[in-house]
Amino acid sequence: MMNKLTAIVVVFMASMLFAAPAFAGDKRIGILVFDKVLTSDVIAPAEVFGVATRKSWFSDYEVVFIGVERKPVITTEEGIRLPVDATIYDAPQLDALIVASAYDMGWLFKNDDLTAFLRSQAKTATWLGSNCSGAFLYAHAGLLDGYRATTWAGGEKQLEREFPEIDVVFDQNVVVDRNRISSNGGIPSYQSALVMLSMMAGTGKAKTVYETIQLNRLIPWSDVEAYLPEGKK
To answer: I want to staple 101 with a disulfide (CB 3.0 to 4.6 A). Which of 9, 77, 97, 134 is the partner?
Structure first.
């Protein structure tokens, strides 16, 4: 039989295990993650916004991984284990939510709790982003109806066929429509993250991050700026 001190320790540990997550920043960029997620769709925005949070002008933000399931770690399609900061069941308050993708998204479409989470975040988050087939998650939740959007290169016809209320854009890496930003995924995930950062903090500051991660060695800044709405370039 456990003594009184042991009982107190057990209760304390249990309360810590199931307590709401504590976040460091006042504002949060949430990236939705799950088993078999494509690594590049997660790492690209995590790196862009992670570098930005180290700058004084963006230091009140932090990047957090939001898990779909109640588990502390997810494993990507490429076998990389990523710790989760919170789950959809913690109802985290986010300023931006970026949805990544996987080769098989079917099980996510059937998750009613996830759909409810996405709809709830759409009411409170300032920005919603998606990479690759992540657009289909928003589409299934009805959050892209009446918006211009894209998905993975080659998947545009499927998105258009299954969701005729979406104005699907073909052959374009990044699409911005009001507070929705979608991309083809993969390397263009960097472009979409920089576009979102430009919208949030200004193009000059986003360009600083672009140079810090040395993306300027691969693509010119004009390939990012081209996707910004008029008046934001």
So the answer is: 134
